[in-house]
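Our consortium's second objective concerns turning raw sequence data into structural hypotheses that experimental partners can test. To show how far this objective has progressed, the report includes one record in full. It was chosen at random from the queue rather than selected for favorable results. The single chain below, 359 residues long, was entered without modification.
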Amino acid sequence: MIALEVSSAAGPPPWGGIGGSIRQLVAALVRLDPDTRYALAYRPSRLRQGDLFRPAARNTRIRVVQDPCNAVLLRGTRVLHGMSSWLPRTPAVPKLVTIYDVNPLRNPAWVTERWRALRGGRMRQAVERADCVVATSRHAAGEIEALLGVPAARIRVAPLGVDAACFRPLEPEARATLRARYGDFVLAVGLVSARKNVERLVEAVAKVPELRLLVVGRPSNAFEAFRAAVARTKTAERVEHRGRVSERELVELLGAARLVAVPSLYEGFGLTVLEAMACGTPVVCSDATSLPEVAGGAALLVDARDAEALADAIRRVLASPALASELVARGLARARAMSWERAARELLPLYRELGAGSA
């Protein structure tokens, strides 16, 4: 049996980011590996939310366990995978952990001291306890080696994926209806945090007349900077913050946008890039950290620290239907190549290498 620690996915919907990735990976692993039993374990602090995994228990090969330190679980476990960048202190069970990014260590000024201590401490404990550390990109692997001191020989790269059944192009009629409602808009998705660099995108959009910016995601530590940028550029009538939206709404907005902008300065992977591509929308993307790697030549890359360069990239896409169509075609191909089944296939050999055969 393989135990998967899934605490980050035990919360309520909408499931984006790490939680959504875990759910997609679990589903793909079970589909691709029919001879293995799985246990889904989450920390006791998530107890009230754990019933969201109950439907999975209808599959006779899946157990749902309320504590990854559960002694009964560990007796039957050949490998424990910490999918939430955390590992419990356990007996001699082969272990691997996924570290999605080390932003609190690389950019400490972007997070609170408490969060830096909490996340940094958990990551350091996890990599010390793990026999293998999984990175979601080559860039993230280099950061794990440099900032957590993990030897390269103990790191494996297993990129994330995109669900093409969910994230797909809109029908032309639906796209036309949404564009009539919202007008021409650029979409940005994610926490309004320092590393997402949304205030620079506001400055860029201010340089492109009549274009609207729609920002989807929870307010975070750069929300006041975002609001200040809107005030400074006098774009209040053209910039809207929508907060969190459902998955269905996200797919609609991704498909209706003239382009999706990903101006992040630091990402361990960057799921929004693939999700936008799968929806058939051109992507203008930061050239920083893992993002060029994830884009795979299918996005227009730019130095997102430069508002004028970002504005110029947006203008190029809007002014050239040929460029936009080329980016859409490349993006759809890239998204097809980055499925969750492919992501699961990267993990299965690691489980077997660490001693997890069929159980």
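The partners drew two points from this record. Residues 113-129 form the longest helix (17 residues). The chain has two domains: 2-161+340-353, 172-337. Both points have been shared with the crystallography group to help prioritize constructs.
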